[in-house]
Amino acid sequence: MSTLEYILLFTFIGSIGALIGGIILLSREKLMLKISHFLASFAAGILLGTAFFDLLPEAAHEGETIGTDIFPWVLFGIILFFLLERFIHWFHHHEEFHDEKEVKSTLPLIILGDTMHNFIDGVVIAATFMVSVPLGIATSLSVFAHELPQEIGDFGLMLHKGLKPRRIILVNILSAAVSFLGAIITYLLGNILEGYIPMLLAITAGFFIYIASSDLIPEIHHEKRKGFAFVESLLLIAGVVIMGISVSLLEHSR
Question: Is the pTM of this model over 0.85?
Answer without folding.
Answer: no
